Amino acid sequence: MLSSAHILMCKMDRNEKRVLIKYLNVKCLSAAEISGELNSVLEDSAPSDATIYQWIAEFQRGRKLTVDEHRSGRPVDVCTDENVRHVNDMITTDR
After folding, report:
1. DSSP secondary structure string, 2-69?
2. 13 or 53, which is more confident?
3. What is the domain count for the chain?
4. Does residue 59 form part of some domain?
5. Per residue in 2-41, pLDDT tens?
6. 38 closest CA partner among 54, 18, 57
7. C-alpha closest to that of 8 among 39, 42, 37, 40
8. How many Cβ atoms are within 10 Å of 23's Cβ, its own excluded?
9. Is 88 contained in some domain?
10. Most CB atoms closer than 10 Å: which of 2, 3, 48, 69?
11. Is residue 48 part of a domain?
């Protein structure tokens, strides 16, 4: 079904894997078939069965987008110029 040689030539990010899950779901493959297909092609970098089931459920509930939705809370990236300066100051002061 999926050409392993073609897919393995590029590193796939989360969103690309979700697109594959969505595509195979639209083709009416079961979750087990989708998992088997992705595992045979992506091997160790394939999403877990739980992730595949979660995304199939999301698409069946009507979700269209495969990108992450914005979430409130702590930001993912906390490396700011201010933090870097603060750490550098602590290091130079502690010498």
Report:
1. --HHHHHTS---HHHHHHHHHHHHHTT--HHHHHHHHHHHHGGGSPPHHHHHHHHHHHHTT----SPP
2. 53
3. 1
4. yes
5. 665 555 545 788 999 999 999 999 999 999 999 999 999 8
6. 18
7. 42
8. 13
9. no
10. 2
11. yes
Amino acid making up residue 57: A
What is the amino acid identity at position 43?
A: E
| Burial profile 25-61: b = 16 or more Cβ within 10 angstroms, e = fewer | beeebebeebbebbbebbeeebbeeebbbebbebbee
Domain of residue 35 covers 1-66
SS3 85: helix
pTM above 0.90, yes or no: no
Residue 71 included in any domain: no
